[in-house]
Amino acid sequence: MTDREIILQTITFVKSELLHAEGGHDWWHIERVLNNARTIAKSEPVDLFVTELGALLHDIADHKFHGGDESAGIEKARAFLLRLPVSEEVISHVVNIMTNISFKGGNYKQQFFSPELAVVQDADRLDAIGAIGIARAFNYGGFRGREMYNPTLKPRFGMTPDEYQQSAAPTVNHFYEKLFLLKERMNTATGKKMAEERHRFMELYLEHFFKEWDGIQEDQAT
Ligand code: ADP
Ligand code: NI
Fold first, then answer.
1. pTM over 0.90
2. What are the pocket residues of ligand 1 if the criterion is a CB atom closer than 6 Å to any ligand atom?
């Protein structure tokens, strides 16, 4: 079996695993992350096979959707890869990518580093910002029944991973608690460049959002 065939089988597996996923964490999120990862990988010294497997499997174990438990998803991915001609070295690298990719509020110490994780993490972060990031944040907020915005609730910084996961804050707060922080956390030069335009677009978006919230018409004579 060629690496290409393994990737195709992984695509089929991930699609079936994510069949009922929330709209921001479904197969299309994975496809976008895979595309971002392929773009970034062009200028990084990575093993493309590991990078693609990491991008494809990175959200199978998402703690947000499994009551904080990642181990079931990790085991599922490992069991899947074990059925294919993939070396133990590649499997453990992919598992390390899955376990260490997450933001978790930004105050969690990442335990593992590799050029492949750096690429997949940037690819995933890019999908959390810009036009797509905005859509995903509001979709997730709606999925959780959150307010879009509440002017009386200020964003919180320095949350622990548990506090971050349990937060029921309005979606606009998530821009300040995570989305605007990502630009400074990009690992690769290509990722940083791609993040800049997406970051600016989110700033412009919120500028309009607040103006509309307050019903302001700027060229109005007073
Ligand atoms: P990670 O999986 O890296 O820990 P998050 O838990 O922050 O990342 O979630 C990934 C995506 O899910 C975010 O980029 C966002 O689109 C959405 N999301 C997560 N938490 C929230 C939230 N509190 N409000 C709005 N969107 C959220
Ligand atoms: Ni993801």
1. yes
2. 24, 64, 102-104, 128, 136-137, 140-141, 167, 171, 174, 178
